[in-house]
Amino acid sequence: MKVALVTGANKGIGLEVAKQLAQKGFQVYLGSRDLAKGVQAVEKLQAEGFSNVEAIALDVTDEASVQAARERIGQQTEVLDVLVNNAGISGGFEQSALGSPIEQFQTVYDTNLFGVIRVTQAFIDLLEKATEPRIVNVSTSMASLTLAADLTSQSYPTRFVAYQSSKTA
Asked: I need a surface site. Which of 28, 120, 139, 154 has the fewest CB within 10 A?
């Protein structure tokens, strides 16, 4: 059985990705910074007939949490076939380059950029053991520098610079 880890999997896109991977027969670890919410997501999937899902506490901004998740998954499997870096935060809207505090940028970047790096580095050894490893980094069209700079776009005056730049990075 192939194994997948999806970060930010207790709701939204992450939960749907976890469900689709489970439908394809993967053992899926649903990473969630709030384990109780991860357990609720697993219970929902189990009620739909999936037994190949498990919640795991994983806060991508916390090195100790990432390492604990790596250790726990590593105790159950020697191989990780798929890593889906889905966890992300908006940082609150609206944002501006000159008006948003540096702390807002740091918080958003810690999840959306450094979290991806932190998790990928922690799990790369398990991925390297897979015959066809995959890393999927979930982004957004808002990360497009071309779209963000389009003066004719309806959303041009609305800036989400911390979020957009973190997802671009």
From this structure: 154
Of all helices (H) and strands (E), which one includes residue 14?
A: helix 12-23
- Which of 3.40.50.720, 3.30.110.70, 3.40.190.10, 3.30.565.10 would CATH assign to domain 3-168? 3.40.50.720
Q: What pTM, to 2 d.p., does this model score?
A: 0.91
The candidate with the shortest Cα–Cα distance to 110, out of 63, 69, 61, is 61
Yes or no: say if 136 and 84 are a contact pair by the CB < 8 Å rule.
yes
Between the alpha carbon of residue 38 and those of residues 29, 30, 137, the distances in Å are 10, 6, 20
Q: Hey, where are the domains in the chain?
A: 3-168
Question: Smallest Cα–Cα separation from 112: which of 169, 56, 59, 57?
Answer: 169
At 117-139, the pLDDT tens digits run 999 999 999 999 999 999 999 98
